[in-house]
Every structure is written in C-alpha cells, then in structure tokens.
C-alpha cells in the first residue's frame, strides 16, 4: 500500500486513460528511481464517462472529462492528474496548471475498415461512423458522397459495430490505439496535410496545482520541450477561436530544427466551407503564433461563419 507520502495520480477509468496514467507512473519511477508502490492511481468518474446515450457535442459544456478530477486536485485528494491534451479545455480552473507534456505520439488519425483500404477507396454512399465534429466535417469535405453516422463507445464497441455492418469504416486517433496495443486493426493512417488532427491530439499532459514546488519537481523530468511548445501554440489557437464544442477545429504545431510551424483549419460541420492557415515562427513565440493563426482564420471566415449553424 502507498504510504503517507504517497503520490496520488488521478485519472478517468477508461482503458485509454488508465494506460496513460500507468505510463506517467512508470516514467516517474524511472526518472526518480522511486518505488512504484509510492504512487497510487486514483480512478475518478467524470460526466463524460457517465453520459453514454448522446453525442458529447450535444451535451456541451466545458470540462466534461475533467471537472471531477480537477475538484480532487484542488482539494488535495490527488496530487497530479493525467489527461489527453485533446480533451483539455483552454481555460483551467484557478490554481491549476498544465505542468508537463509527455513527448507527443503520432498525431495522425487512423482509418479502420474491412471494406476499403483507405477513405479514398470507400464506395460511393458508404457509411462512416464518428462522433467527432472535426472528423465528420473533414470526411464530408473530402468525400461529400459518404454518409456520416454518430459513433460513440470504446474500441471494442466500434469494432463490433463495424462487424455488424452499422458502418463501413471509422476513424480513431493512432496515438490512443498505440497506447492500447491495438495497432493491428488500423487499415490506413490519415495524412495530416489533408486530414489535420485536433489540437493536442497524441499528447499526454499532466495537470497539477499551480506553483506547487513538490509536484513541479516531480514532473519536470517528464516534460518534453518541443511538445510543450507545440501545445502552447495549439492551445492558444483554440483559445483565440473560443472554440465551442460545436465547432470543427483542427490544428497541428511541429518543432523542427529550432523552428515552429503551425497549420490550422476551421470547417463548417457539413464540410462545404473550410479556412486554413499556415504560419512559422520562433518556439519562444508559440502562444503568439497560435493566437495570430486563430485571428487570421476568424477574419477569413467572417462573423457569420460561427453563428451560421449554432
Ligand atoms: N476524446 C477521446 C480521446 N481523447 C484522446 C484520444 C486519443 C489519444 C490522444 O489523442 O492522445 C481519444 C480517442 C480518439 O480520438 O480516438
């Protein structure tokens, strides 16, 4: 059992969330040479886990997957929380901060189908299941002839739906499939050029109490500088667009040879309208670059863009 000075890591209970929390625990053990039983993993149920019967975009509200975990972090019942960066709201509750980003996994989406080798190869009128507004809009943009249906649930549920013929294909983040050891089901990987990921996709983040020296020192060796830079840019982009849960937004920042490159896109849910921007800058200006990209897209789209379907 964990002792008095145990480190408590809060996480959701989904297989993916647990895999991520275990990865953080393993890295803390390796970085500090500590015993694994000093670290306790505390499973916390969130509203996003409990609501299974509706698309989450319909439920709306910020922090569906984070609120209950953040309450425990603020109370001191847990010391750290592990999240998928993609699920994190751009504004955190007072007193909390994202204190480390693990090195990003492959940010690409994976295409999964037993009917076709790629999205391009699906027959006309094929059905693709996805609950992500971004994926739905991108699919419709690339393949207006395809029907998109709502698809929630874990990997097993989705595969069963494919086997039952509810849909011909689905899309999931490659990073999540890798963490679950499920890469064998992947049919194709989507090029980020024409199928850009969600901001934060593929990056695990650690949330902590802001300015808590004990936990800051613990997670510091786990932070991957280039990923933290990319995420600062992507999250500033998202914040500038004030992305409600109902806006399809894609964005990916990369750091190579000391330079930061960002590409962002906003789409209408039906995929008929899309605006894109690509910017480069210095890693030190990551947040400013993200904000600039967001402003550019808002200007290009015009005021009517966000209000036209909401
Ligand atoms: N909203 C669910 C979610 N949040 C993060 C991931 C994947 C892992 C990641 O992006 O790091 C997923 C599942 C998916 O999109 O397939």
UniProtKB/TrEMBL annotation:
Which cofactors, by name? dipyrromethane
What does the Swiss-Prot or TrEMBL cofactor note state? Binds 1 dipyrromethane group covalently.
- Report the EC code(s) recorded for this entry: 2.5.1.61
Carries keyword Signal?
no
Q: Pfam families from the entry? A: Porphobil_deam (PF01379), Porphobil_deamC (PF03900)
Enzyme class comes to: transferase
Pathway participation: Porphyrin-containing compound metabolism; protoporphyrin-IX biosynthesis; coproporphyrinogen-III from 5-aminolevulinate: step 2/4
Q: Which domain of life is it from?
A: Bacteria
Gene Ontology CC terms, in alphabetical order:
cytoplasm
What's the protein here called?
A: Porphobilinogen deaminase
